[in-house]
Design goal:
mainly beta; five-stranded mixed sheet; single chain; four-stranded antiparallel sheet
Amino acid sequence: MAQAPYSDLEVRHLETERSELQPVPNNPDYTLPEPSHTPDTQDTQNTVADKSEIPTSDAQPLAGSDKPGRRLCGLSSRVFYALVALATLVIAGGIVAGAVVGTRARNGSEDHASGGGNADGGDAADPSNDGNTNTHVMSTSQLASANWTDPAGFHHRFVFFQDVTGALVARRWESQNKTWATNNLTDIIARSDSSLSPLGRSTPLASAASTYNSSSERVRLYFITSNNTVSGVAINDLVKEPEAWRVDSIAGNSIQTWPGSQLAASWHRCWANACEGTFTVAFQRLEDAGVMTTNSTEYKNPRLALEANRAAYNTSLALVAERFESDYPRLTMLTETLASAVKGRIQKSSFTGKWIPQEELFSNVNLPVPSPSLQFSLGALPNSDGVVFLILQPNGKVIGEYFRSGFKDMPEIEFRNGPSGVNFSVIATGEDAMFYGISGDEVLAYSIDDSDPSVFKFEGTVYP
């Protein structure tokens, strides 16, 4: 498939890997740690032995000598040099230990303050030196997707990720020509009067599309910048100006997130004719990692969805909109809370005017604590007659549940046809029953089977 060329614009990488993050158990009595710092160097003091223990002048001479042994500072040379050697070892050990502790403390402080890589003003990272062996897709890239139907009835799909240079890339597909086109969003924004905030090598991504004819931007991509601030890009006229992406300033608001916070987004439908609906974004707030949601009509007034003690630090986040009863829309969210220091559990919450924690899902799954390789995803079943709940496990395996007249387990997903031995590093699902995943150096697309939702049918390679 021919690939549309795009700029080789350099992108600064200002953060270290998020994969270095270590989860911290949540509980109501937990006090947030103060940032670590390098301990001050302490003077080493040598303790002098009691004089009664110092050998006297009748010490034995060296073997083979007829003369008394030479004395230094009142000690026999053998004792003197032994004490000097011991003191040298103690001092050297103290210096090494201090250096190690200082380095660990400094690194720990940077990781805590930056979520494993979102450090404002950190050293620029060269993608070629981060262990990345890919040539197309950054090995630590996150993934997001959205879909939209235009007034003429043609279907549009969008998949977002970072390429090996760290640039934000959008791949877009439309049902009229059934082809994929490429937009380098970093390049497009750079050629405008704006510029993107610095991004890291594993920037959290979340996307949503307004599915109805409205005056809002049709598609928005949200991401967390290197200084832990929510930002984004948006596009309005996908038909006439499919490359007219612009910076979405979140209505001029600065939304700070917990270091290492993940991100989720959804179009919150409004089924009434007079209501357009809103873009909703979920994140963990800076103060205590409580889960917040905010929407495009009131970005400056985020809503508390879950108290800090109900969500693990750096939990994966997933959002989807679904019908509730007759016409009132409902948002469903997945988060992780901790059952113990080494085990997590998935919490489902719903919004119908206010956020309400509901049942635990995947109760029969031995879920690990949050990590960059553990991810949740929510999408729609074919014909929008249910919701699919997916977990990408650290071993690259995808499992799930779906709701269609009751919950049904999917202990194993069958990826039918397509490349063999797929092992996903990140996944995304759409509201059009589509599944996307990065496996190796490729972005792959699958459709969810209507008769058996545990079967994902290969639809093709999104990129390259």
